[in-house]
Each structure stands twice: as C-alpha cells, then as structure tokens.
Design a protein that fits this description.
heterodimer; A: 327 residues; mainly alpha; two-stranded antiparallel ribbon; 8 helices; 4% strand; elongated; B: 110 residues; alpha+beta
Chain lengths: 327, 110
C-alpha cells in the first residue's frame, strides 16, 4: 500500500495515520534525529489506533499536527512554551537592542526616569486620544494646523473640541484595559504622527529636511494669491515690453484700479520673500514687478515654488501695429 | 475555569496514578484519564508527560506484541515513581485543602 499525504481525507485508517504522523514529524524540526524518532515510535501505535477507532479526520480528533507537535514538546519538557524553531528576526533584533541599551538603562538617572514614566501614562492616554482626533480632522480637513491643538470639525471649534474630548475618554478606557488590547499601537502611532506633523507645520509651513541634515523652510504653497488654472502658484511676474525687452518697476492694477499683489510676502520665519518697495508716501508698495527676491535664508537643493526669476524663452517683439500708449 | 490550565500542573500526578493502578500503554492511559473525568486531556500531552516521566526514572517500559496492530509499549511504575506519586499526592492534598478553605471563606463573604 502506498502512502501519500493526499490520502489523508479519503484513504484508509493506515494511510490517514501515516500522513498525520509525517506532518507531526515535520513540526519536530528542532529535535535531534534520534530523539524525534523515539517520540514518534511511541506515537505510531497510538495514532493508528485512534485512526482505526475514530471516523473523524485525525486533525479533528487529535488536533492540527502543528499543535499536536507543540503540545508534545511542551509536555515532554523538550521546549519552552514556544515553537522549537530558532528565534525570529524580530526577537533577535530585540535582544540585540536590549544588550546595546543595557549600560544606558542601568544608569541611575535613566532608572529614575523609568520609574517615573509609568506615572505619566494616564496623561499620555488623554493626550493620544485628543491628538488622534486632531489628526483625523487634519486628514479629513484641509490639512492646516494653525489652530493646534484645537481641532476643527465641520468648521466648528466647539464640535472639534467635543470630539477630541470624547477621543481622550475612549483612549483612557482603552489604556486601563488589561491585558493591553491589540492594535493600541495604531492609536499611539496616529498620535505621534500628528505631533510630528503639527510640529513641522507651525504657521502652515512644512519643514523639509534636506540631505545635509538641516531644516529647510519650504515656502508655503497655499499663501499665494495668484495661480495658474492648474493650481501652480504665481510667485513673480516678469513684464516684457512690446520691443521684447524686460521691463523694470512695472506696477500692475486690475480693472477696478486695485493693486495686483502676489500675496505671500514673508516666509515661515517672518523673513521677507521680496525686497520691500516703499512708495513716496512712505507706505509699502506690493505690486511692483518683477519683485526682487530677498536674500534667501537657505538655498533649497530642490526648490518648491521659487521667488527667483527664470528667464522665459526668447520674447519676440510685437508687430508695430500695436497702438502706442504714449500720444 | 479552563481545566486545561489546571491540568498542566497535575498531569504528571494523574498519569502516575493511572499507571500505578495497572500497567498501561499510551492509548489506554489517555482513555482511562478521560473516563476518570479529565475530558480535556490531550493525547500529545500524555505522551510528552510519559516520556518525561520515563526519562526521570518514574516509569519503566516494556513492549508487548499485539495481534491486531503494532507492538504496544506498556508503562509500569518504578520504585522512584511510587515515591514521586506519594510525594505528589501529599502536595496535592495540602494544596487542595488550602484552596478549599479559601473558596469556603470566599463563599461566606459572597
């Protein structure tokens, strides 16, 4: 009689027993060969008898082969309450990190901090609930954080505050539950991400770290009044005359005589983006083009919206039929 | 309460008791444990326990040919196993008395 594992379900008792035993054997990989044979020798008669007297599949009457093997090892004292395989990457990484951190951990100062930290836990529970709701309003809203830490839900501070308070209460309830519910890390991660995002987003400006490691203050793309139809902010205007030559000091007004300004004149650090032009009346003039970029604080390796001028391709002169504004 | 957790601590004693009553092979031991009321006992746990008891010298084994199937390995209690059973029984009695007492006080309070 040939015995193959696919006879487990429809083969005779002998075949079912043999297939089951082969599976159990495959889960006893951590043992020495003779030890494994020894264990299985004892079991062979047993599994055959169970298969002969019980119509049900062996995986049902004896349990899945994997569980059977583990139970066998644990009861025989051959294995701690874990699978016999060598520790996974996760455990080994953890052990390695623990060994490296040991000197720092045993320092009296860090021990004092470690003793004190658990007392802060309830505060963290409140904070993370609040932050998670705040993060949610950021994701669902327009993403501005000017109101940190007060969330705005459905354009209402009151509703936002209420939701955040509910979030804090729920978070505390989760925190008090033992054992620690699985998936709490999602909440913790959401709260930490929110803090990181908000910290980098003070005054609506995102901090981008360049490859040299220094923070670079990105010019906010949302502060510009003028935009192309595709949404690209217009950060400067280069006027050219009919003769195809660039003009300087051109002032632009709309149909009603209102000055046309670029909008954002300061970066996140409060530094002017353009050289300020003061009119004869002593007031700043904001519609002089091309605007002269101020000395940039940091030169971005990969600029976002830039205030500096890129010369356009050749500007052809207009045909002379253009009426001259000067009589 | 989950009996399988309780069983872990006392399976040695239960197996020793069954074998002390009469020499037995594995399948028989599992059946007799279940008949005695330990419905949750796992086949693998019993075999693992037997192996450990054998290595500790508490039980010995001998093979008896069977006409219906493979040979059967019978287990018998050794003198050391008899001592282990006696000590274990004493420990268990004490433990059970303590717990009975605790549970009785708890019942009065409740």
């Amino acid at each position: 009689m040939t015995v193959t594992s696919d006879t487990t379900l429809d083969g005779g008792p002998e075949a079912r027993a043999a297939a089951y035993l082969a599976e159990v054997r495959s889960h006893l990989g951590g043992l020495a060969d003779d030890e494994r044979d020894d264990l299985l020798d004892d079991l062979t008669a047993h599994v055959h008898q169970v298969a002969a007297e019980d119509e049900r599949p062996l995986a049902e009457s004896l349990g899945p082969p994997r569980d059977f093997a583990r139970e066998l090892l644990v009861a025989a004292g051959l294995s701690p309450d874990t699978p016999p395989d060598r520790p996974g990457l996760h455990e080994r990484a953890r052990a390695w990190a623990a060994a490296r951190l040991e000197p720092a951990r045993s320092h009296p100062w860090s021990r004092a901090v470690a003793e004190f930290l658990p007392e802060l836990r309830p505060a963290w529970w409140v904070a993370r609930g609040w932050l998670a709701v705040y993060g949610l309003t950021l994701v669902l809203g327009d993403g501005t954080t000017g109101s940190f830490p007060f969330p705005e839900a459905f354009s209402s501070w009151f509703l936002g505050g209420l939701l955040a308070a509910v979030g804090a209460v729920l978070s505390v309830r989760l925190g008090r539950r033992t054992p620690r519910p699985r998936g709490v890390w999602v909440l913790n991660a959401a709260a930490i991400l929110t803090v990181l995002f908000a910290a980098g987003d003070v005054q609506g400006t995102r901090v981008v770290y360049d490859f040299d490691g220094g923070p670079v203050y990105d010019v906010p793309a949302s502060g510009w009044d003028l935009r192309h139809p595709d949404g690209t902010p217009i950060t400067n205007i280069q006027p050219y005359g009919a003769d195809g030559l660039p003009l300087e000091g051109v002032r632009l007004f709309d149909q009603a005589g209102r000055p046309i300004s670029l909008g954002t004149t300061h970066d996140a650090m409060g530094m002017p983006l353009y050289e300020e032009v003061i009119g004869a009346d002593g007031l700043p003039v904001t519609n002089v083009y091309p605007a002269r970029p101020a000395e940039p604080l940091v030169i971005r390796p990969e600029p976002g919206p830039t205030t500096s001028l890129v010369p356009p391709p050749t500007i052809p002169a207009l045909p002379p039929t253009t009426p001259s504004p000067v009589p | 309460m989950d009996t399988s957790q309780l069983l872990k601590g006392v399976l040695d004693l239960a197996v020793l008791a069954v074998v002390a009553e009469e020499d037995a092979y594995g399948y028989d031991i599992v059946r007799r444990l279940r008949e005695a009321g330990l419905d949750d006992v796992g086949d693998a746990s019993v075999y693992g326990t037997l192996r450990r008891l054998f290595q500790a010298g508490s039980v010995s084994s001998y093979v008896v040919p069977s006409d219906e199937g493979p040979h059967r390995k019978y287990y018998a209690l050794t003198p050391a196993g008899r001592d282990a059973l006696a000590t274990g029984t004493k420990t268990w009695r004490h433990f059970a008395d303590v717990l009975d007492g605790l549970l009785a006080t708890g019942k009065e309070a409740a």
